[in-house]
Amino acid sequence: MPRFFPCPYLGVDVELTDEREDYIRGKHAAILRPGFDYIAGTIEAPEEVRRTEPNARLFVRWYDGLAGGKYLAVSVVEQPGPTRHWIVTAYMARRVTKGVIEWAGT
Asked: What is the pTM assigned to this prediction?
């Protein structure tokens, strides 16, 4: 059953399908160990939003408690007609340089 996370930046709910959840769990299990709090927090209150492709954004937020202190990057794709926003992947990083900053928190 897919999960949905509110995304104030986009003004929509972002979908995490079972298939994408399994993919993230297989590659980056630490992201999901405390539940979905890291993903939900990043989508709801990112520190940066980066444009990585015309239809994709990377939501980025730092977490002190994630693997000793890491950024979480969540890639969200917008699919047109009917519009759908869904998570492709999520990963940890010491720094995030991919894409162009579209928005940065103050």
From this structure: 0.95
